[in-house]
Design a protein that fits this description.
35% helix, alpha/beta, 4 helices, 23% strand, 2 domains
Amino acid sequence: MGVSQGMRVADIGYGTGNVSFGIGSNIGLSGSVCRVDVRKAQLNIAHSQAASLNCSNVVFTCASAYDTGLPQESFDLVYCRFFLMHLNQPKDALLEMLSLVKPGGLIVCEEADISRSFCDPSSSAYERCFELLLNISDIRGQHFRL
């Protein structure tokens, strides 16, 4: 992703934050990672992990991906992983992410199209599981085919 020392990174919808811990180690203490998640339980888990790993360059924010409250045009990298697919309005979250990144900065989103999942050897239980996941996604207005 082009992560380097001293970067300022926003990790949106980080969950428990496993990937952003890796980002934090790559940017070093001269950089910072601001994690945003709307779920306090996820925030608490990530905060405990950060403390146990002695990560001092991580800041936690409890906010919506649609309105993070973070300063605009202040991040070198805005990142999310397997997040937009769970939202009803992923475009609105992307617009918020776009407002956060500095001119010339990066927005990196890792997503999945689970309709392309397969098992080898094939398994009817596996196929049924993903059929149900896609149906639930459709009912909820989510985007598991993103």
